[in-house]
Every structure is written in structure tokens, then in C-alpha cells.
Write a structure and sequence with these properties.
Its main location: membrane. The chain is α/β, with parallel strands linked by helices. The chain contains 20 helices and 14 strands. It folds into 5 domains: 69 residues, no CATH class; 153 residues, no CATH class; 75 residues; 103 residues, Translation factors (Elongation Factor Tu (Ef-tu), domain 3), CATH 2.40.30; 152 residues, Nucleotide-binding domain of ferredoxin-NADP reductase (FNR) module (Rossmann fold, 3-Layer(aba) Sandwich). It is 51% helix and 13% strand. α8 runs antiparallel to α10, α8 runs parallel beside α14 and α11 runs antiparallel to α13.
């Protein structure tokens, strides 16, 4: 014990008291021995009185020493040992500091974004205050800026991050690369811990990368969670956190590769191939393989065309990764990070189950297919506890024997055909929605009943109420969310200027939304519908002309649509984003907010046009993206 303390005393730059306290703590944790710093200091005083310098005492019997010895050669060895171990464990400490700094930076960004976005939501004055050349320049090229296309990209690319997302992703990548490959690595020639340069530097890289990814791993599980508290604080969209989840996963995969190759390099340098026979090494290899397969199978084409397969395999592989990574990390006492990941995942699952219970548990829903637009409407009695808001969405579990565990996102709004009910809408694609559409078609009247569970509500309500004028540009099924916003806005202020533009392919595509459009009759809102293919008329959904129709809407023909929607302005041709945005800004007498939910190309065009038009008005011009993509 005293020899440790003496070793420390030979290095003036090291705090003797701090070193003694570390010895006390280590003895308590590892040897169940109780010491005090004063006892160690007393032993050091006694130790100093017995030291013999063998270089100045030639009569000393070095082969049978009875006293503690010192000398230049021994001091040199001690110094080399000290520096070697200091480099070894300082690298571990610095790695922890860097991991903590990464998490702290995420927390700081969350707080700043939360303060800004909550101020925008709670204060009309603040929402309309940030106007001028400098704020407009910042918003045009950063907060509203796009890198090429954002939502509208080819099917092999997925979704590109916007400039805000790209900025933070770049910072995460840069920081992780610097930490894992450049910052804070020192190797001492003649290192007494590692046999050679390759063994030492490989271990430094291996420790740094694994500790960094350990701190980042819980964030990887928080970001895609539906009950992500970062989302509530920042009021950022769920799709933004899904984007961060994807890119952070790629960063962690990079660090896993660095860790794997670094430790393999050290194994080779030390000729320790016996490691391949140890459990911790084998579990590490398995965890690396699982992570790599997860990344490959999460590619955009697989998610887009084989989503159910992707989801199933993704969950199974993540479970395997957590288990094998935990077994691997346990040998180095890093297992708590993986327990944290499990806790986050379990918490999110439990809260989702609670939401399902609060919504009423399993309920019978009416599912209706509108073939013209390939739209599904799911109508179910609303919850007495949970209340949706404009912009809300929910995830629905369709209780079929094989797919009950899957959940799919639907936009929600109050039903106009069933009192005390809510309606969920989405377009028919592949997988579950195609399965439901096929069942509706086989029913004879395009309607079926099915037990469902609703996990919701999610989503943030954009503060359109703080702007003098609100303009929504929508297309296809994208009208559902903006419709709810419009309804709420005109209910709270009958004098508010609200515009709703809707682009559809044919008149038949209007049919599914007629009941909702009729709620705007005799209000200040006059919807404008663009029909790009007006020559295609409506056809009845029934094969029997004598069959009793359930409603007048179901048997509408083109003239009937025009008659019932006589308060709606219908135009033939494609919707022109540039003309609408320019005209609405020019005619605005105050602040104006745009919301977009349409085809991805249209949404990108609206965002880009609004960004380029900020200086065309002396009032605040804002943009809210109502489209969710993930």
C-alpha cells in the first residue's frame, strides 16, 4: 500500500491526496478492505524512513533486500510504468467524457429548440416578431432550406434530411469521427502495458469507439420511440427523430466496425488468438454481425416494398443484438448501457399499451374502401379520455390472427357521418392496407367491420391561430389533416381568413371526402379543388343498379358532385404552387402561414417557394410541414 503511495509521491504533477482517496475507494470496491487517506499517508512516512538508495550504498545486498530500494534505474522504470498506465486509463476516462459530452450536447440542443418552438406555440407576439433581412436569410437558407429534394426522391434513396437535420447529422458524424480516430491518443515508446505500437494504439481505438457507441446507444432507442420525450420538448415532428435514428444508427455502425477491427488488430499484434475461444469475444462478433445485417435490411427499398418483412426481421435482430452485445459488454462492466436500452424500449411499449387501454381497448370499427382514390376510411367510436387535435395521427392494430401485433399510422379527425366517432384515413399501398382493401372489395359493398386497437394520439398541433391568414395546399389523402385544422380555425374565429387548396386526379377522387367538404358550406372558407384529369367521370361502386344505396354520396355522378359542392371552386388542370404562394402572400394584409400535405414533390415545392418568398412581405411568412414520412 505504501509503495503505491510512494510511487505517486515521485510525480509532483499528481495529487497525493487524490491518489490516496482513489486507493481507499478501490480497496473498498474490489478487496472489501477499509482504509483511510490518513492511514495511507502515515504508512508513506514510515515507508520513506526505510528506503535505501542502492546506487549510493554499495554495501547493500541487492540479492536479499531487507529494505525498500530506490535509484535512477528503478525510478525510470517506475516513470515508464506510470506514463504507460496513465495513457491506458486516461484514454478510458477521456472516452467517457466524450460520450457524456455527446449526450449533453443533445440535451442542450433539445432545450434550445424547446424554448424556441414552445415560445412560437404559446405567444402570438413571438410568432409574428421574427421578421427582417437577417432572420429571413437564416430561415431561407437554414430552417426552411432543402438539400436538393427532401421528401420527393427516387425509390432507392429514401428521404433526404432537410438542412436543419443535415446540420446536426454532420456535427454528430464529425464529432464521432474525431473522437474515434484522432483526439486524445498517446503512445509511449517503450510502453510497459502494451507490447508494441500496434497493440497499444489498437486498444486505444477499440476502447474509444466502444465507449462512444455505448453512450449513443440509448439515444438510438429513444429517437424512434412514439413516446419520445425529446419530441414533446422540442415539438419537432416524429419524422425528424426517425431521420436522426437512421443516421445515428449508421454512426454507431461505423463505431462498431472501428471497435471490431481495432480489437482484431490487437489480437493479431499480441498473438492472442485464444480470444476466439472466449464467450465475450464470440458474443462481440455475433453482435457486430447482427448490427451489420440490421443496417443492410433497413435500406429504403426494403422498407418501402417489404415493410412487414423489414419490421419483423428488424425487431428480431435488435433483440439478438441487445442480448449478444450485453453478454459481450458484461466482461468490461459496460452492460448497464444495454440495460438502459431495454428499459427505454420496455417503457415505450408499456406507454403504448396504456394508450390503447385509455382509448377503450379492442373496438369494432367500420372500414370502407373508396376505389376511385384507393382510400381507406376507418371509423370507430372515440375515446372518452383521449382527445385528438388537428395534426394528430394514431397507430392502429387490426386484430387479425397473423397481423394483430403490427400497427400502422393513420391521420385522424372527427367523423362527419357517425356522431361521437373519429375517422382514420390512409391510402391503400401494400401489406396490411392492401389486405384490408381486398377484404372490402370481396364484401360486395366495399365495407367491412373489424376489431381494432388504437394507439394514439400522437403529433403536434401547429400554431396557425397566431397568424392573420392561413393557407393549406393539399393533395389526395393529404387533405385529412389540414381539413381538421381548417375546421378548428373557423370554429374558433368566424372572421379568420382560411384558404384550402386541394389537388385530385379525377372527380371520382372527390367522392370519399364529400361529407367533410360539406361542413364548410355557409362558412368563410371556400375550398378550391384542382382536378387534373376532369374527363374521367365518376362510376358507381355498385355492380347492381337496383341495389339500395347507403347514402346519396355513394351514387354521385359528376353533376351531382358539382351540385352538392356548389360553394366550392373547382378548376381543371394541375395545381400551381408558385402561383398560389405568390398570390396569397401578395394579397395578405398581415402575417400568413402555409401548411402543406400532398404529393412529396408538391410539398417540397411549397417549402422551397415559401422560403424564396420570405422577403416579398413586410409581415411574417411561416411554413409548417403537415406531412409525416418515415
Amino acid at each position: 500500500m505504501a509503495s503505491w503511495a510512494y510511487c505517486c509521491s515521485t510525480f509532483p504533477e499528481v495529487s497525493q491526496l487524490g491518489f490516496n482517496e482513489q486507493i481507499v475507494e478501490m480497496c473498498e470496491e474490489n478487496a472489501n478492505q477499509t482504509w483511510t487517506a490518513d492511514e495511507i499517508s502515515a504508512n508513506l512516512v514510515k515507508y520513506n524512513s526505510t528506503i535505501v538508495n542502492i546506487e549510493s550504498d554499495p554495501s547493500f545486498n541487492a540479492t536479499s533486500p531487507q529494505f525498500v530500494v530506490t535509484g535512477k534505474k528503478l525510478n525510470k522504470i517506475a516513470h515508464a510504468n506510470f506514463i504507460s498506465y496513465k495513457h491506458r486509463w486516461d484514454n478510458v476516462s477521456n472516452s467517457h467524457y466524450m460520450g457524456i459530452a455527446f449526450v449533453a450536447a443533445v440535451g442542450a440542443v433539445t432545450i434550445v429548440a424547446g424554448l424556441i418552438n414552445w415560445s412560437l406555440r404559446l405567444s402570438r407576439r413571438y410568432s409574428n416578431a421574427v421578421v427582417g433581412r437577417v432572420p429571413n436569410f437564416f430561415r431561407k437558407y437554414f430552417t426552411l432550406g432543402l438539400i436538393g429534394n427532401h421528401l420527393h426522391v427516387n425509390k432507392l434513396q429514401g428521404i433526404n434530411p432537410d438542412r436543419v437535420e443535415a446540420f446536426f447529422i454532420f456535427i454528430m458524424f464529425l464529432y464521432s469521427i474525431l473522437c474515434c480516430t484522432i483526439i486524445g491518443f498517446n503512445y509511449l515508446p517503450g510502453d510497459t502495458v502494451f507490447a508494441n505500437y500496434q497493440a497499444g494504439t489498437s486498444r486505444y481505438w477499440g476502447d474509444r469507439s466502444c465507449i462512444m457507441l455505448s453512450y449513443q446507444m440509448p439515444l438510438l432507442f429513444i429517437f424512434p420511440g412514439r413516446n419520445n420525450f425529446f419530441q414533446y420538448i422540442t415539438r419537432w415532428k416524429y419524422s425528424r427523430f426517425v431521420t436522426f435514428h437512421k443516421w445515428l444508427g449508421r454512426i454507431i455502425m461505423m463505431e462498431i466496425f472501428i471497435h471490431s477491427f481495432a480489437m482484431a488488430s490487437q489480437t493479431y499484434a499480441l498473438d492472442k488468438f485464444t480470444r476466439f475461444g472466449t464467450d465475450w469475444y464470440r458474443y462481440g462478433i455475433t453482435a457486430c454481425v447482427c448490427a451489420a445485417v440490421i443496417i443492410v435490411l433497413a435500406a429504403a427499398p426494403i422498407r418501402r416494398f417489404y415493410y412487414e418483412l423489414f419490421l419483423t426481421v428488424h425487431v428480431v435482430l435488435v433483440v439478438m443484438f441487445l442480448w449478444t452485445a450485453w453478454r459481450h459488454a458484461y466482461s468490461q462492466a459496460y452492460q448497464d448501457f444495454y440495460w438502459a436500452c431495454c428499459a427505454i424500449w420496455i417503457f415505450d411499449t408499456v406507454v403504448r399499451f396504456i394508450r390503447i387501454v385509455l382509448f377503450g381497448g379492442p373496438k369494432t370499427a367500420e372500414i370502407e374502401l373508396f376505389p376511385g382514390e384507393d382510400v381507406l376510411k376507418v371509423t370507430v367510436s372515440s375515446s372518452k379520455i383521449l382527445k385528438g387535435t388537428p395534426g394528430s395521427h394514431a397507430f392502429i392494430h387490426f386484430l387479425t390472427p397473423l397481423r394483430f401485433w403490427q400497427s400502422h399510422p393513420f391521420t385522424v379527425y372527427p367523423s362527419e357521418t357517425h356522431e361521437g366517432a373519429v375517422t382514420f384515413t390512409c391510402r391503400v399501398k401494400k401489406g396490411m392496407t392492401k389486405f384490408l382493401a381486398d377484404k372490402c372489395k370481396s364484401s360486395g359493398n366495399n365495407k367491412i367491420s373489424m376489431k381494432i386497437c388504437v394507439d394514439g394520439y400522437y403529433g403536434e398541433q401547429s400554431p396557425y391561430q397566431f397568424y392573420d391568414k392561413t393557407v393549406f395546399i393539399t393533395g389526395g389523402t393529404g387533405i385529412a389533416g389540414p381539413y381538421y385544422h381548417c375546421k378548428k380555425l373557423i370554429q374558433t374565429d368566424s372572421n379568420r381568413e382560411v384558404k384550402l387548396y386541394w389537388s385530385v386526379r379525377t372527380y371520382e377522387c372527390i367522392k370519399w371526402f364529400v361529407p367533410e367538404l360539406l361542413t364548410f358550406k355557409d362558412t368563410q372558407l371556400k375550398p378550391v379543388i384542382f382536378v387534373s384529369q376532369p374527363e374521367n367521370n365518376i362510376s358507381s361502386t355498385s355492380s347492381d343498379d337496383n341495389e339500395k344505396k347507403e347514402s346519396d354520396v355513394d351514387s354521385l355522378e359528376k353533376d351531382d358532385v358539382l351540385k352538392q359542392l356548389d360553394f366550392v371552386e373547382i378548376k381543371h388542370g394541375r395545381l400551381s404552387v408558385a402561383e398560389i404562394v405568390t398570390a396569397e402572400i401578395a394579397s395578405a394584409t398581415g402575417s400568413v402561414a402555409f401548411g402543406a400535405c400532398a404529393h412529396t414533390q408538391v410539398v417540397d415545392d411549397v417549402r422551397r417557394t415559401v422560403a424564396n418568398s420570405l422577403d416579398h412581405s413586410t409581415h411574417k411568412v411561416e411554413y409548417f410541414e403537415e406531412m409525416q414520412s418515415w
